[in-house]
Amino acid sequence: MRAFGRPQGILGRVGGMIMARSNRGIATRVIELLDIHPDDEVLEVGYGPGVAIQLIAAKLSSGKVAGIDCSAVMMQQATARNADAVESGRIELHLGLVEAMPFEDNTFDKALAINSMQAWSGAIRGLREIWRVLKPRGRVALGFTPYSGQAKEGLTAALEAAGFSGVRMLDLNGDFSVLAVKP
């Protein structure tokens, strides 16, 4: 947990460097699945070292990307990686928990989380909070690698219990993703 789940200290800094490399592939695939448009407002939950945030920002011309992460170490790494876009306001990074996000209702067109749901203190509460901040017809994608420790069982039911519809699981050559829509 100190290196990857809720990174802190020297282990967290090293964990962030490892995550920046090891999660790039799944982040790229999940971003493609979300079909992000240049004017979308996008949220990443558990942005870690900021790789997915960086990839998303490159797709946006008039849209914005925001993120929330519980680790100050990850906030430092993500801010450094995306310094120009943070400075210009195209990227907004927050320190906090998915279960209590500082965003207004119906703010985002798309949301994603990569290898972070297993570290949330309450999966259903976190998913309900994502549902709250998504606009109607907003899409969410959760992506996982085999080393995430996240089981596939129960994921679709958790998203449905949080209010999402059209839930589907995709196998991504060893990785997997779950997609859903806010009705």
Estimate what percentage of residues fall within beta strands: 25-35%
Per CATH, which architecture?
3-Layer(aba) Sandwich
Strand elements, count: 7
Largest sheet: 7 strands, mixed
Model regions low in confidence, pLDDT < 50 over at least 5 residues: none
CATH topology: the name is Rossmann fold
Number of helices: 7
Could you please describe the fold and organization of this structure?
It contains 7 helices and 7 strands. The chain has a 7-stranded mixed sheet with strand order 3-2-1-4-5-7-6, sandwiched between helices. With 183 residues, the chain is of the alpha/beta class. It has one domain: Vaccinia Virus protein VP39 (Rossmann fold). It has helices at 9-22, 24-34, 51-59, 72-81, 83-88, 123-133, 155-161, and strands at 41-45, 64-69, 91-95, 108-114, 134-144, 165-172, 175-181.
Quick rundown:
By secondary structure, this protein is of the alpha/beta class. It is built from 7 helices and 7 strands; from the N terminus they run ααβαβααββαβαββ. The chain has one domain (9-181): Rossmann fold, CATH 3.40.50.
